[in-house]
């Protein structure tokens, strides 16, 4: 009887040890799963935070981009009947004021203004933004701009070799040489519509670079 009891007890111990081993194994697997779950949750939260900040950055960048676009185009110049003329004279006066404040020795030089813009891109943008009603309004604007005074010109160009930035580079070289010969302040304006950026450049006698205006 005692021998049978001892065998049963030994078998029970073996079974308990196996069950304990299985429980320990399951416990280890559970801890591993919990760890992976917690890692996944942290990663997900991190991605959510990153997406939130990325969205905030994108919204801020979009807002700044829109503000920059609006700052480059003043409604009153396009809405007014003589807006082109006013824009031309204001630009000339702005250059003159800059020279008086920063280059007084050149403040009385004649000012030559050459403006180039992509006709299709600029007209589409102005119509879409409500600044003009139809593309032909841009033609009237540039005509008034050009006729404001004798040393100003606004040219609408196309794409490819005729693009605005190519005209600017060519114009700056010619204007710089002309300025060296005649002592003329030469200013070029370029509007490129792949990125809607506006560049204003100045050249002084001898090709010296004028600070951006």
Automatic annotation (TrEMBL):
Domain (DUF7923): residue spans on this chain: 71-170
Superkingdom, taxonomy of origin: Eukaryota
Pfam families: DUF7923 (PF25540)
Protein name in the entry: DUF7923 domain-containing protein
Organism per entry: Fusarium oxysporum f. sp. narcissi
